UniProtKB/TrEMBL annotation:
It comes from Goodfellowiella coeruleoviolacea. SUPFAM superfamilies: ParB/Sulfiredoxin. This is Chromosome partitioning protein ParB. It comes from the Bacteria. InterPro entries: ParB/Sulfiredoxin_sf.
Amino acid sequence: MRRDTGFPVADSENDFLKVRRSQVLSRLAAWLRRVPDDVNIMLPFDEVVAALGWQGERVLGLRVIRLASIVGSVDRTRDFDRRFRPTSARVRERWQRIALAQRRGEAVPPIDVYRVGELHFVRDGHHRVSVALALGSETIEANVTEVRTRLSAEGIRHRGDLIVKGYRRLFLERVPLTGAARAAVLVTDAWDYAQLGEHVEAWGFRLMQDEGVFLDRATIARRWYEEEYQPVVGMLRQADLIGDRTETEAYLWVAAERYRLIRTHHWTDEVIAALRDKHDRGRRAG
């Protein structure tokens, strides 16, 4: 709860000291808990858009946005952490000037942001965001430019999440799944998308050899999902071979093991039995 002295200058100075103390304590707590560094770093707008794939943008104009939705910056400023708390005393003078203006009820210009999905990235107004959060505000006025991307920004929390998004975007360029198929094929390890892309392309090459025709990427992606992925995942469910992985991760595992154990690209009862036996032995050993 904020306690005011009734003297705006002194209160704005106290505001800055409190928020700086909070930032230092938070950084110390993260260090003691060995939390990864990227947890408290702002998401860089350029890296987010690169990972998701830029498609276009449009100006939305003046909006009222939630401060909690502001997660990053365009200029990768190091003056503030992920929660827009000052990381040094360098911004103190300007910060306190804005805090004083707000305490006196003076008009503060709207900030400028990019919107990606439900996330916002500050183009101009880092100090205003920091002060608004410190003074307990939940919303702020902003001039918003919406950026459209190939992939959704859903699920992005830290910079590490961008690696998975980037590999997924590349995978979907190689294997252009659509609709329910696109939503169903998911892995948590970024490198698995690269392996899966190679696997689908190899499957498509064998299919073209068998049929003696050229197939484009979209056709291969659709047929792989319908003729290979869905039936195999169905068998894995029946054989209780999914485990605690995603269905796609289970598919990747058994596809690799199938060839290593049986030296075949086909699915038979013998293949499923061998895979189940290996899976059961692995569980007993664990």
